């Protein structure tokens, strides 16, 4: 199991506890509503508990990072559907404060996929807010005003943007102030040191390949070594203390300079 998969699995379990607390809070609020609405929320809560148990079981048996991302995506989509059903129970009044619960969906995405997940959760929560407004307007004919819609959308975006911006600043500060451990190790410590690229004539005597390797930047040479060591892209990002998207850019540059189309073709 890779380090990135282990970390995301831990986040997934903690998020399940967080989702349970939020769901209990929603149930407590709904106890003051008429029985039909309470029954609807109870059915939704049972559905949430059922698919949560299934996803946790699938997540425990998933060994590959890519497949675990599918599990996280399914959890986020199903949570969005569950939030949509529960928001309908709050849509019987124009003075509803139900949108105040929507940032919980954005925080869930932030814990899953960091900044990208935060924006994904924010987009889903804003769509659910528009869905609630259109439902009130077309079905119950008592939608809250346009000013209230703009207020809730802005407040939801602000509450979600603050932790996203904080995560971006922390990552940038960490990347600029802290040097990876392997870069400060003494040269005589060869036990865990990442091997450096020292081009030499390979068995086929392909001088063009050697010249291409020497054209790689220092960071690209480091990522090249990790690719040859069968590190995943997420593990490379963790090891080099850089963003996942930056790793993908470096990998594309490496493939282009070495004139290959995949990791298996690397010299």
Automatic annotation (TrEMBL):
Q: Which residues form the HTH luxR-type domain?
A: 209-267
Which CDD domains does the record cross-reference, listed alphabetically? LuxR_C_like
Q: Which domain of life is it from?
A: Bacteria
Q: Does the keyword DNA-binding apply?
A: yes
A GO molecular-function annotation: DNA binding
| PANTHER family xrefs | DNA-BINDING TRANSCRIPTIONAL ACTIVATOR DEVR_DOSR
Instruction: From the Swiss-Prot or TrEMBL record, give the protein name.
Output: Regulatory protein LuxR
């Amino acid at each position: 199991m890779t380090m990135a998969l282990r970390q995301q699995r831990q986040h997934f379990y903690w998020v399940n506890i967080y989702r349970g607390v939020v769901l209990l809070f929603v149930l407590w609020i709904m106890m003051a509503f008429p029985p039909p609405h309470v029954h609807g929320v109870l059915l939704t809560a049972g559905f949430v508990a059922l698919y949560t148990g299934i996803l946790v079981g699938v997540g425990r048996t998933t060994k590959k990072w890519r497949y675990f991302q599918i599990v996280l995506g399914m959890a986020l989509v199903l949570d969005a559907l569950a939030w949509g059903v529960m928001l309908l129970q709050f849509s019987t009044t124009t003075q509803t404060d139900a949108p105040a619960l929507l940032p919980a969906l954005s925080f869930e995405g932030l814990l899953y996929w960091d900044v990208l997940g935060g924006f994904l959760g924010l987009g889903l929560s804003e769509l659910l807010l528009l869905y609630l407004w259109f439902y009130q307007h077309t079905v119950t004919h008592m939608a809250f005003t346009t000013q209230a819609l703009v207020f809730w959308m802005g407040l939801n975006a602000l509450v979600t943007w603050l932790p996203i911006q904080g995560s971006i600043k922390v990552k940038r500060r960490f990347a600029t102030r802290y040097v990876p451990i392997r870069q400060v190790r003494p040269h005589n410590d060869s036990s865990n040191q990442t091997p450096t690229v020292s081009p030499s004539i390979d068995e086929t005597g392909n001088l063009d390949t050697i010249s291409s390797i020497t054209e790689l930047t220092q960071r690209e040479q480091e990522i090249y070594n990790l690719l040859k060591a069968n590190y995943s892209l997420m593990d490379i990002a963790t090891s080099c203390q850089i963003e996942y998207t930056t790793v993908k850019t470096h990998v594309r540059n490496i493939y282009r300079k070495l004139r290959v189309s995949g990791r298996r073709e690397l010299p």
